[in-house]
Amino acid sequence: MSLKNVIIIGASGNVGKPTVDALLKAGGFTVTALTRKGSSSSFPSEVKVQSIDDSYPQDQLLAAFKGQDAVICLLPPVDINQLNSIADAAAQAGVKRFIPSEFGSDTAAPEVIQLIPMFGGKAAVTNHLKTKESSGMSWTSVVNGAFFDWGILTGFLGFDLQSSTATIYDSGDAQMNATTLADVGQAVVGILSNPDETANRYVYVQNVCFTQNQLLAAIEKSTDKKWTVNKRECAEASQTGGMKLSKGDMSGIPDMILGGLYTGEPAANYAKTRKLDNDLVGVKEYPLEEMVDKVIKAQ
């Protein structure tokens, strides 16, 4: 199986940009960005651009997917029916591989869905893809943990670089996995380059596994200053996040995710229970301090 013609939905987003960069750097891929009409996103000259209506109508998806070997769908897992409809169109068009917008925690573990219910949408899409295997379209879901660089620079992981303030959940000793956005893109390249070995399964990668306290120590060393530390309970964060989301307030997303990841539950650290695919897809592990220094210097 050869997966050289690749179309990406959401190619201008946080995961999309480094994925495009990784594919172009690797060479040998023909990359197309599928955008919505009216989009102002720009791409490198090597990337083909195809536009369709905002509603992603089936006939236009079928036309866009014709001749494509792989679809990488990076739309947020909010409208599950829409994502499943996109997968249906890909299978009908003869696409060989579909990579859905997982890119995070191990949603194959029921315990993770219990900790972070909003991830149930991701699992639902992957389960739908499993029904397409008989039609000849395979799938691969990527589990990479947190986006390490993005999580620090945006403050998502609880570390505010501007105020030198950290929010530590519970004891701060829960382990979690993380991968940089660049290596998430590399993981996609590795999957497409090893189609048989990555078909119809989750692929697990990480650059590093760490605790909040370890990350705090590394950041303090890299910034050469003592940080202010605030404490928060995971249970309270999860409850607050759930209440916000139930009212349509998307600011509850970090609360729910971090409230689940920082609990110390074994399922939150997939490196303990799953075989990592780093070697297969070309992702390396690095010392935590080295990774922190690189992020701090790049801001």
Question: How would you portray this structure in words?
Answer:
- With 299 residues, this protein is α/β, with parallel strands linked by helices.
- Helix content is 40%, strand content 19%.
- It has helices at 16-26, 58-65, 80-93, 110-115, 120-130, 148-153, 181-193, 212-223, 234-246, 252-261, 278-281, 288-298, and strands at residues 5-9, 30-36, 48-52, 70-73, 97-99, 138-143, 146-147, 159-160, 165-169, 175-179, 201-204, 208-211, 228-232.
Task: Please supply descriptive tags for the structure shown above.
299 residues; alpha/beta; three-stranded mixed sheet; 12 helices
Quick structural summary:
The protein is an alpha/beta fold and 299 residues long. Helices cover 40% and strands 19% of the residues.
